[in-house]
Amino acid sequence: MSFPIHRMRRLRKTETIRNLVRETTLTRNDLVMPLFVCPGSRVKKPIASMPGIFQHSVDELVKEAKRLVDLGVQAVLLFGIPEYKDEHGHVACQEHGIVQKALRALKKETPRLYLIADVCNCEYTTHGHCGTVIDGEVDNDLTLATLGAQAVSLARAGVDMVAPSDMMDGRVARIRQVLDESHFEYLPIMSYAAKYASAFYGPFREAAESAPQFGNRASYQMDPANSNEALREIALDIEEGADLVMVKPALSYLDIIRRGKDEFNLPFAAYNVSGEYAMVKAAAQKGWIDENRLVLEILTSIKRAGADIIISYHTQEICNQL
Ligand code: PBG
Predict the structure, then answer these.
(1) pTM exceeding the 0.90 threshold for the entire prediction
(2) Which domains occur in the chain, in start order?
Protein backbone atom coordinates (compact mmCIF):
# COMPACT_ATOMS: atom_id res chain seq x y z
CA MET A 1 0.00 0.00 0.00
CA SER A 2 1.36 3.39 -0.85
CA PHE A 3 0.26 6.92 -1.71
CA PRO A 4 -2.19 8.41 -0.77
CA ILE A 5 -2.45 6.19 2.34
CA HIS A 6 1.18 6.81 3.14
CA ARG A 7 2.51 10.34 3.17
CA MET A 8 6.05 10.62 4.52
CA ARG A 9 5.63 14.36 4.89
CA ARG A 10 3.18 13.94 7.82
CA LEU A 11 6.05 13.36 10.21
CA ARG A 12 8.04 16.27 8.82
CA LYS A 13 5.35 18.90 9.19
CA THR A 14 6.53 20.77 12.27
CA GLU A 15 9.71 21.14 14.22
CA THR A 16 8.16 19.32 17.17
CA ILE A 17 7.24 16.20 15.25
CA ARG A 18 10.63 16.21 13.57
CA ASN A 19 12.22 16.37 17.03
CA LEU A 20 10.06 13.50 18.22
CA VAL A 21 10.99 11.13 15.41
CA ARG A 22 14.66 12.05 15.08
CA GLU A 23 16.80 8.90 15.09
CA THR A 24 20.24 10.35 15.82
CA THR A 25 21.13 13.10 18.26
CA LEU A 26 24.65 14.34 18.67
CA THR A 27 25.71 15.15 22.24
CA ARG A 28 28.84 16.46 23.92
CA ASN A 29 29.40 12.96 25.26
CA ASP A 30 30.16 11.75 21.75
CA LEU A 31 33.05 14.11 21.06
CA VAL A 32 36.81 14.13 21.56
CA MET A 33 39.01 17.15 20.76
CA PRO A 34 42.53 16.52 19.35
CA LEU A 35 45.30 18.79 20.70
CA PHE A 36 48.92 19.36 19.66
CA VAL A 37 51.54 20.04 22.33
CA CYS A 38 54.96 21.50 21.52
CA PRO A 39 58.07 22.55 23.48
CA GLY A 40 58.67 25.99 24.96
CA SER A 41 56.46 28.32 26.91
CA ARG A 42 53.79 30.80 25.83
CA VAL A 43 53.68 29.19 22.42
CA LYS A 44 50.36 29.22 20.60
CA LYS A 45 51.30 28.65 16.99
CA PRO A 46 48.50 28.62 14.42
CA ILE A 47 48.40 25.81 11.87
CA ALA A 48 47.87 27.45 8.50
CA SER A 49 45.85 24.65 6.93
CA MET A 50 43.66 24.18 10.02
CA PRO A 51 42.17 27.56 11.00
CA GLY A 52 41.35 27.63 14.72
CA ILE A 53 43.82 24.85 15.60
CA PHE A 54 47.20 25.52 17.24
CA GLN A 55 50.34 23.92 18.53
CA HIS A 56 50.38 24.80 22.25
CA SER A 57 53.26 24.69 24.70
CA VAL A 58 52.34 22.96 27.97
CA ASP A 59 51.45 26.21 29.79
CA GLU A 60 49.18 27.31 26.93
CA LEU A 61 47.76 23.80 26.61
CA VAL A 62 46.59 23.95 30.22
CA LYS A 63 44.78 27.23 29.49
CA GLU A 64 43.24 25.72 26.38
CA ALA A 65 42.17 22.62 28.31
CA LYS A 66 40.48 24.75 30.96
CA ARG A 67 38.62 26.62 28.24
CA LEU A 68 37.53 23.31 26.70
CA VAL A 69 36.29 21.99 30.04
CA ASP A 70 34.23 25.18 30.46
CA LEU A 71 32.71 24.56 27.02
CA GLY A 72 31.67 21.07 28.10
CA VAL A 73 34.39 19.08 26.33
CA GLN A 74 35.10 15.95 28.33
CA ALA A 75 37.92 14.23 26.45
CA VAL A 76 40.99 15.18 24.42
CA LEU A 77 43.42 13.25 22.21
CA LEU A 78 47.01 14.42 22.57
CA PHE A 79 49.72 14.55 19.90
CA GLY A 80 53.26 15.68 20.66
CA ILE A 81 55.81 17.66 18.70
CA PRO A 82 59.13 16.86 20.40
CA GLU A 83 62.12 19.17 20.75
CA TYR A 84 64.25 16.81 18.70
CA LYS A 85 63.65 13.59 16.79
CA ASP A 86 65.70 10.39 16.47
CA GLU A 87 65.97 7.35 14.19
CA HIS A 88 63.64 5.09 16.16
CA GLY A 89 61.36 7.40 18.10
CA HIS A 90 62.97 6.73 21.49
CA VAL A 91 62.33 10.37 22.30
CA ALA A 92 58.63 9.47 22.60
CA CYS A 93 59.33 7.14 25.53
CA GLN A 94 61.08 9.57 27.85
CA GLU A 95 59.77 10.34 31.28
CA HIS A 96 60.05 14.05 30.50
CA GLY A 97 58.90 13.76 26.90
CA ILE A 98 56.56 16.39 25.58
CA VAL A 99 53.30 14.43 25.89
CA GLN A 100 54.34 13.02 29.27
CA LYS A 101 54.84 16.58 30.53
CA ALA A 102 51.50 17.64 29.13
CA LEU A 103 49.75 14.68 30.77
CA ARG A 104 51.14 15.51 34.19
CA ALA A 105 50.18 19.16 33.88
CA LEU A 106 46.67 18.40 32.64
CA LYS A 107 46.03 15.73 35.29
CA LYS A 108 46.85 18.37 37.90
CA GLU A 109 45.10 21.39 36.38
CA THR A 110 42.08 19.81 34.66
CA PRO A 111 41.49 16.57 36.60
CA ARG A 112 38.03 16.05 35.12
CA LEU A 113 39.28 16.00 31.54
CA TYR A 114 39.73 12.47 30.10
CA LEU A 115 43.17 12.20 28.50
CA ILE A 116 43.77 9.98 25.49
CA ALA A 117 47.22 9.88 23.87
CA ASP A 118 48.14 8.81 20.36
CA VAL A 119 50.80 6.09 20.28
CA CYS A 120 52.91 6.29 17.15
CA ASN A 121 56.45 7.08 16.06
CA CYS A 122 55.93 9.38 13.09
CA GLU A 123 56.06 12.63 15.08
CA TYR A 124 59.24 11.44 16.79
CA THR A 125 61.38 9.95 14.02
CA THR A 126 63.75 11.92 11.80
CA HIS A 127 62.39 10.14 8.70
CA GLY A 128 58.73 10.71 9.66
CA HIS A 129 57.70 7.08 9.31
CA CYS A 130 55.58 5.37 11.95
CA GLY A 131 58.29 2.86 12.89
CA THR A 132 61.90 1.79 12.76
CA VAL A 133 63.24 1.88 9.20
CA ILE A 134 65.54 -0.91 8.01
CA ASP A 135 66.73 -0.81 4.38
CA GLY A 136 64.09 1.72 3.44
CA GLU A 137 61.20 -0.33 4.92
CA VAL A 138 59.37 0.09 8.21
CA ASP A 139 60.26 -3.00 10.24
CA ASN A 140 57.12 -4.29 11.91
CA ASP A 141 58.52 -6.35 14.76
CA LEU A 142 61.24 -3.89 15.80
CA THR A 143 58.64 -1.14 15.89
CA LEU A 144 56.55 -3.09 18.41
CA ALA A 145 59.26 -2.51 21.00
CA THR A 146 59.16 1.29 20.75
CA LEU A 147 55.36 1.34 20.65
CA GLY A 148 55.17 -0.76 23.81
CA ALA A 149 57.70 1.44 25.58
CA GLN A 150 55.85 4.57 24.49
CA ALA A 151 52.53 3.23 25.82
CA VAL A 152 54.02 2.33 29.21
CA SER A 153 55.72 5.71 29.47
CA LEU A 154 52.41 7.48 28.74
CA ALA A 155 50.69 5.27 31.31
CA ARG A 156 53.24 6.26 33.95
CA ALA A 157 52.60 9.92 33.14
CA GLY A 158 48.90 9.46 33.86
CA VAL A 159 47.17 8.91 30.53
CA ASP A 160 43.58 7.58 30.73
CA MET A 161 43.61 5.70 27.39
CA VAL A 162 46.18 4.92 24.69
CA ALA A 163 45.39 5.02 20.99
CA PRO A 164 47.94 3.28 18.74
CA SER A 165 47.79 4.75 15.22
CA ASP A 166 50.85 3.17 13.61
CA MET A 167 49.17 0.20 11.84
CA MET A 168 51.90 -2.33 12.69
CA ASP A 169 50.68 -5.92 12.93
CA GLY A 170 50.50 -7.22 16.48
CA ARG A 171 50.85 -3.89 18.22
CA VAL A 172 47.66 -4.14 20.24
CA ALA A 173 48.76 -7.49 21.71
CA ARG A 174 52.22 -6.11 22.50
CA ILE A 175 50.91 -2.93 24.08
CA ARG A 176 48.38 -4.93 26.17
CA GLN A 177 51.14 -7.26 27.30
CA VAL A 178 53.59 -4.57 28.39
CA LEU A 179 50.87 -2.48 30.03
CA ASP A 180 49.74 -5.49 32.04
CA GLU A 181 53.32 -6.35 33.01
CA SER A 182 53.63 -2.81 34.35
CA HIS A 183 50.33 -3.15 36.27
CA PHE A 184 48.24 -0.98 34.00
CA GLU A 185 45.66 -3.73 33.52
CA TYR A 186 42.80 -1.24 33.57
CA LEU A 187 44.17 1.17 30.98
CA PRO A 188 42.03 0.83 27.84
CA ILE A 189 43.40 0.60 24.30
CA MET A 190 41.57 2.31 21.46
CA SER A 191 43.17 0.94 18.33
CA TYR A 192 43.14 2.74 15.02
CA ALA A 193 42.07 -0.59 13.57
CA ALA A 194 40.96 0.45 10.10
CA LYS A 195 43.27 3.31 9.27
CA TYR A 196 43.58 4.09 5.59
CA ALA A 197 46.56 5.53 3.67
CA SER A 198 44.68 8.76 3.07
CA ALA A 199 45.31 12.12 1.43
CA PHE A 200 42.98 13.55 4.09
CA TYR A 201 45.89 13.55 6.59
CA GLY A 202 47.73 16.33 4.73
CA PRO A 203 47.06 19.21 7.14
CA PHE A 204 47.78 17.02 10.20
CA ARG A 205 51.27 16.39 8.95
CA GLU A 206 51.85 20.15 8.98
CA ALA A 207 50.34 20.35 12.48
CA ALA A 208 52.35 17.44 13.88
CA GLU A 209 55.44 17.96 11.71
CA SER A 210 55.24 14.28 10.81
CA ALA A 211 55.30 14.02 7.01
CA PRO A 212 57.37 11.03 5.81
CA GLN A 213 60.68 12.22 4.37
CA PHE A 214 60.69 9.50 1.71
CA GLY A 215 58.03 7.23 0.24
CA ASN A 216 54.56 6.99 1.74
CA ARG A 217 52.62 4.96 4.30
CA ALA A 218 50.98 2.55 1.85
CA SER A 219 52.97 -0.46 3.11
CA TYR A 220 51.36 -0.22 6.54
CA GLN A 221 48.16 1.84 6.26
CA MET A 222 45.16 0.39 4.41
CA ASP A 223 44.26 0.74 0.75
CA PRO A 224 41.23 3.08 0.47
CA ALA A 225 39.70 0.67 -2.02
CA ASN A 226 39.26 -2.12 0.56
CA SER A 227 36.39 -2.88 2.88
CA ASN A 228 36.54 -6.62 3.66
CA GLU A 229 40.12 -6.11 4.75
CA ALA A 230 38.92 -3.50 7.28
CA LEU A 231 36.73 -6.11 8.94
CA ARG A 232 39.72 -8.42 9.20
CA GLU A 233 41.88 -5.66 10.71
CA ILE A 234 39.15 -4.89 13.24
CA ALA A 235 38.65 -8.58 14.12
CA LEU A 236 42.40 -9.02 14.70
CA ASP A 237 42.66 -5.96 16.92
CA ILE A 238 39.70 -7.14 18.99
CA GLU A 239 41.33 -10.57 19.36
CA GLU A 240 44.55 -8.88 20.45
CA GLY A 241 42.73 -7.00 23.19
CA ALA A 242 41.49 -3.67 21.80
CA ASP A 243 38.75 -2.23 24.03
CA LEU A 244 37.54 0.14 21.34
CA VAL A 245 38.31 0.31 17.64
CA MET A 246 38.55 3.25 15.30
CA VAL A 247 37.86 3.87 11.65
CA LYS A 248 39.86 6.66 10.08
CA PRO A 249 39.22 8.92 8.18
CA ALA A 250 35.48 9.21 8.81
CA LEU A 251 33.62 10.78 5.91
CA SER A 252 34.84 8.72 2.98
CA TYR A 253 34.61 5.62 5.18
CA LEU A 254 31.11 5.79 6.65
CA ASP A 255 30.41 2.43 5.01
CA ILE A 256 33.29 0.90 6.96
CA ILE A 257 31.95 2.29 10.25
CA ARG A 258 28.53 0.83 9.46
CA ARG A 259 29.83 -2.58 8.40
CA GLY A 260 32.10 -2.77 11.43
CA LYS A 261 29.41 -1.72 13.85
CA ASP A 262 26.96 -4.26 12.42
CA GLU A 263 29.54 -7.03 12.70
CA PHE A 264 31.20 -6.40 16.08
CA ASN A 265 29.79 -5.63 19.48
CA LEU A 266 32.14 -3.07 20.96
CA PRO A 267 32.40 0.73 20.91
CA PHE A 268 33.49 2.30 17.63
CA ALA A 269 35.33 5.56 17.24
CA ALA A 270 35.64 7.54 14.02
CA TYR A 271 38.26 10.18 13.31
CA ASN A 272 36.97 13.22 11.42
CA VAL A 273 40.49 14.03 10.23
CA SER A 274 42.44 17.17 9.43
CA GLY A 275 41.70 17.23 5.69
CA GLU A 276 37.97 16.89 6.31
CA TYR A 277 38.19 19.82 8.73
CA ALA A 278 40.33 21.90 6.35
CA MET A 279 37.85 21.49 3.48
CA VAL A 280 34.99 22.79 5.62
CA LYS A 281 37.06 25.73 6.86
CA ALA A 282 38.23 26.66 3.36
CA ALA A 283 34.71 26.62 1.93
CA ALA A 284 33.41 28.57 4.93
CA GLN A 285 36.10 31.24 4.52
CA LYS A 286 34.94 31.72 0.96
CA GLY A 287 31.35 32.04 2.13
CA TRP A 288 30.31 29.05 0.04
CA ILE A 289 28.61 27.05 2.79
CA ASP A 290 26.77 27.55 6.07
CA GLU A 291 29.55 26.28 8.32
CA ASN A 292 27.54 25.69 11.43
CA ARG A 293 24.88 23.62 9.70
CA LEU A 294 27.50 21.73 7.74
CA VAL A 295 29.49 20.78 10.83
CA LEU A 296 26.38 19.52 12.62
CA GLU A 297 25.39 17.55 9.54
CA ILE A 298 28.83 15.99 9.19
CA LEU A 299 29.15 14.99 12.84
CA THR A 300 25.58 13.67 12.95
CA SER A 301 26.20 11.59 9.83
CA ILE A 302 29.25 9.99 11.45
CA LYS A 303 27.16 9.08 14.48
CA ARG A 304 24.31 7.84 12.26
CA ALA A 305 26.79 5.57 10.47
CA GLY A 306 27.47 3.87 13.81
CA ALA A 307 30.26 5.74 15.58
CA ASP A 308 29.95 5.93 19.36
CA ILE A 309 32.88 8.32 19.69
CA ILE A 310 33.76 11.05 17.21
CA ILE A 311 37.21 12.58 17.26
CA SER A 312 36.92 15.97 15.60
CA TYR A 313 38.69 19.32 15.44
CA HIS A 314 35.18 20.84 15.29
CA THR A 315 34.52 19.69 18.88
CA GLN A 316 35.45 23.02 20.45
CA GLU A 317 33.19 25.10 18.20
CA ILE A 318 30.18 22.82 18.39
CA CYS A 319 30.22 21.61 22.01
CA ASN A 320 28.51 24.62 23.54
CA GLN A 321 25.68 24.35 21.02
CA LEU A 322 24.82 20.78 22.02
C1 PBG B 1 49.99 9.35 13.24
C2 PBG B 1 48.67 9.94 12.96
C3 PBG B 1 48.21 10.59 11.81
C4 PBG B 1 46.94 11.08 12.11
C5 PBG B 1 46.64 10.68 13.40
N6 PBG B 1 47.72 9.95 13.92
C7 PBG B 1 48.88 10.90 10.52
C8 PBG B 1 49.35 9.89 9.62
O9 PBG B 1 49.08 8.68 9.74
O10 PBG B 1 50.07 10.31 8.72
C11 PBG B 1 46.07 11.90 11.19
C12 PBG B 1 45.05 12.74 11.86
C13 PBG B 1 44.45 13.81 11.01
O14 PBG B 1 44.67 13.90 9.79
O15 PBG B 1 43.72 14.61 11.59
N16 PBG B 1 50.29 8.17 12.63
Answers:
(1) yes
(2) 25-318 (3.20.20.70)
